[in-house]
Recover the amino acids of this structure.
């Protein structure tokens, strides 16, 4: 087992990167009509300002009482629920922004936003804006599972070019050579996904610009990400519940070492490559 110090070093070095990439996989943020520390809906315009600030930092935000976006019916967990919590003292108003997934797991907690204003509306809004500065370092940008969409990217230009030719010169047929080339590319992508086995379940891995994504077979959404590090051959392994390191052993098996933050111990899981 690799030593725990290495895991700590890698995790700390890519802390913000990992958080940003986790947020990037969510398309929407749902803002409630009222936060628990307020007495009425949108009191002091805090909820309205929260929605505005999420949009300012690139999120697609909607109020919980609004119609949900249509594509949430396809992927109902493609959104985060926003919450704002208060921890104010006698002379300071303190707020934090929290994002939760559809399982009510905390995905992100902002730094504490502080205001010394005495008037409630000014104090809450100033503290909220201060808390939202945490999103500046994340540089959020929604990233759909672009590897899964790669076959579409490969075929779309061919289709558009053929259609354009048919409009201009109706006698031009579709090119069998190009169609065969596209089909060959799709087949290569399919074959490149190695199958791994762990605990009688099958998994597969797809390459991404930042490393790899790990999928349970027959499931469209990845459950884990593996982000490249400066240490060659090592990846930051991240799921909703855990973090650790991952690497491929000499037999091509995927080895994952999960860090337990309670006692700094690690547990190992091996995904054996299927021959």
């Amino acid at each position: 087992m690799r030593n725990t110090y290495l895991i700590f070093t890698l995790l700390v070095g890519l802390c913000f990167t990992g958080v940003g990439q986790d947020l990037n996989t969510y398309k929407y943020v749902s803002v409630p009509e009222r936060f628990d520390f307020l007495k009425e809906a949108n009191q002091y315009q805090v909820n309205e300002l929260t929605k505005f600030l999420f949009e300012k930092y690139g999120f697609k935000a909607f109020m919980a009482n609004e119609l949900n976006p249509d594509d949430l019916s396809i992927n109902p967990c493609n959104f985060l629920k926003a919450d704002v919590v208060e921890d104010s003292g006698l002379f300071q108003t303190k707020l934090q922004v929290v994002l939760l997934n559809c399982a009510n797991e905390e995905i992100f907690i902002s730094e504490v936003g502080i205001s010394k204003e005495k008037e409630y509306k000014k104090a809450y809004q100033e503290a909220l804006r201060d808390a939202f500065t945490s999103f500046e370092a994340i540089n959020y940008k929604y990233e759909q599972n672009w590897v899964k969409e790669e076959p579409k990217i490969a075929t779309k230009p061919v289709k558009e070019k053929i259609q354009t030719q048919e409009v201009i010169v109706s006698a031009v047929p579709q090119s069998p050579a190009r169609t065969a080339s596209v089909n060959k590319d799709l087949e290569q992508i399919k074959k490149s996904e190695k199958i791994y086995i762990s605990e009688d379940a099958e998994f597969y891995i797809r390459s991404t610009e930042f490393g790899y994504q790990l999928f349970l077979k027959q499931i469209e959404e990845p459950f884990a990400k593996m982000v490249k590090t400066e240490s060659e051959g090592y990846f930051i392994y991240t799921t909703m519940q855990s973090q650790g390191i991952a690497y491929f052993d000499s037999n091509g098996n995927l080895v994952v070492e999960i860090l337990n933050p309670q006692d700094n111990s690690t547990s190992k899981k091996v995904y054996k490559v299927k021959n």
Residues 11-18, 146-174 have pLDDT under 50 and may be disordered.
